[in-house]
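Provenance and format

Records in this collection were gathered into a single text stream. Each protein contributes a sequence line and a C-alpha cell line. The two records reproduced below are adjacent in the stream.
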Amino acid sequence: MHTPGTWLEIAVEVEPEAVETVAEILAHYGYNGGVVVEQGWLAGDEGPEFEYDPHRPVWLRTYLPFDEQVEETRQRIEHALWHVSQIRPLGPIQTRTLAEEDWANAWKQFYPVMRIGERIVIVPSWLEYQPQPDDIALLLDPGMAFGTGLHPTTKLCLQLLERLVHPNDHVLDLGTGSGILAIAAAKLGAGAVLALDNDPIAVRVAQENVERNQVRAIVQVAEGSLGAGQAMGHWLSGDFGPDRPDPALSANTPLATFDLIAANLIAKVLVLLAPDLAAALKPGGRLVSSGIIDQKEAEVVAAFTAVGLTLLERHVEGEWVALVHTR
C-alpha cells in the first residue's frame, strides 16, 4: 500500500550527453513515467526569463510512491544507473522523502519563462507573464512527464515553425507530447492542426494544454500515428513495430493532405515512417524533422531522399539535428 501523502524523490546530476539515457531509465521506473529536467541556466537581463546553457550539467529527478515496492524499485534504478556510470560520469544518487503537497509542487520551480526564436515565449501556466505586443505566448502545464520546450530538438522545431507556418496551413504534429508544437502552429496562423501521439498520457496532457491556450477550434488532438507508426508501441518501450511495415497500414495514410508536418521523433522512427511522411505531404509542402542525434543523421537523410524528398535546410544544436525537406 502507498503511504498516503508520501513520496521518494530520486535525483542525479548528469552531463548533457547522458540526459536522454538517464531520463529513459527514470521514466521507466518513476510514477507515471514522470521525469523532471532541471537544466543549467544563465540568468536573463530582466524579469523571469532565463537562457538555457547546453554545456552545464543537468539534474534529473523522478518520484516513487512509498509502497511495498519502493525499496526494490530504488535498487533497480541504482543498478541501472551504475551501468550508465561505467560509460559516462554521473553524480551521486540523492534521495529525499516528500509530503504530498511538496511533491505536487516540487518540479514546478524548474520551469521559468523562456523566449525561443523571435516571438515565441513559453510560459508555465502557474507563472504570471505580461506579453510584449509581438509575443506569441504558449501557456503550458507540462505535467511531470513532459518538458516545456527545453530540449534542443523542441527548441529547433519552434524556431523553424516560426518561419515556416503560413496563414491557413494544414499542419500535422506527429508525436505531439505536451502539444507545444501544435499550439505554436495554431498561434502562428495555421488554419487546422492535427496533433497525434501514440501515448494516451501525452494525448491527455496535450488536450489540456490546447484548451488552456484556447486553440481548440484549430487543433485536434488524437491518439494514433501515421501509416507504419500505427504498429509501434510507446517510444520508451523500444517497440518500434516490424522493420518491414505492413503495407496495409500505409494505406491509411492521408495522401497529400498537409502543407507542413512537424515530426519531432527519433531517427529510427523517422526512417520507418519516411514513406508515410512523404505521402502525407502536399507537393511543395515542408517537413520539419527533429529528434535526430548527429550520428544517425545520414540514415534519416538517405531514407527521406529515397522517398523523393529534397533537403532544404539543416540546423544543429549540440549533438541534435533538425532538417527541413520538401516534396
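Adjacent record:
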Amino acid sequence: MHEKSPLLKATVRDRVGSRYSERYRKQGKLPAVVYGHGREPLPIAIESKEALTLFYKGEKVFRLDFPGAKAADEMQMVLLKDVQFDYLGTNVVHADFARVDLNERVKTKVHVTLVGEAIGMKQAGAILMHPVTELVIECRVVDLPDHVEVNIASLELGETITADKVKLPQEDMKLITDGHAVVAQIVLGVELKTEEAAAVTADGATPEVITAKKAEEGAAGAKPAAGAKPAAGAKPAAGAAAKPAAGGAAKPGAGGAKK
C-alpha cells in the first residue's frame, strides 16, 4: 500500500489567505492543508492538474513528498478528507489531507458501483432507482477500497437493496451509513407517478372550483326567472308603474268631492 500510493510533490506555503491562494491557483497550484497526529496544520501547495486527475480517478491515500523540507516532513502518508469547490461548484479550489498510519482505522466515503443486469428491469415500465451512491465506512488505511460493488442481477420488481445488505470487501470493515438507506430499488413508472401525485395532495393543495367562481360572478347581473316575485322590500325597476296597494284610497274624481 505504501509503495502503490500515488506520490504528490508538495511545497510549504509561506503565506495564507484568499488573495495568496488565488495567486497559487494562477500558477497551476492547488492550495491545501495537512493536519492530524497531534501536529500543527501545515499549509501546502501541490500540482493542480496532477492532483485533480488522481482525485477524479478515486484515489484517496497519497504519499506527500516535500523536496528540501525537514526530515519529519519529507514523506508523509495522507488521506484525502475533503475538497472545496468554487461558488459555481465546478472547479476544485482547495483540498484537506489528514496524516495517517497504514494500520490506523479511519472513516471515509467509498463509491457504490452497481454491477449486473437486474431481472426486474425486463418488465415494461420498470425503473432502477439508485438514491445512495456512496457509503461511509470505517476501516484500516491499508484496506481502504477504491469502490464497493453491489450485484443487482437477482433484483426483481418491487425489491430493494439497503445499505446493511451490502457486503463490504473486508470482514473488519464497519458500515457507518444508516443501514436502511436505499442503495438500489426497482419500481414501476406508474407507481412513481402515483407517489408524486400523493405528495402533491399531502401538501394541502386544493383544486380551484372554476364553475363555482363563474356562478358567483354571473349572479350579480342575472335576471329573475319568469314568474318570480321580487323579494320583500325590493324597489321597483326604473320606469315601472307602481300598483296601488290592496284596499288603498281611490283617487278623487275630476270634479272633486262635494262639500
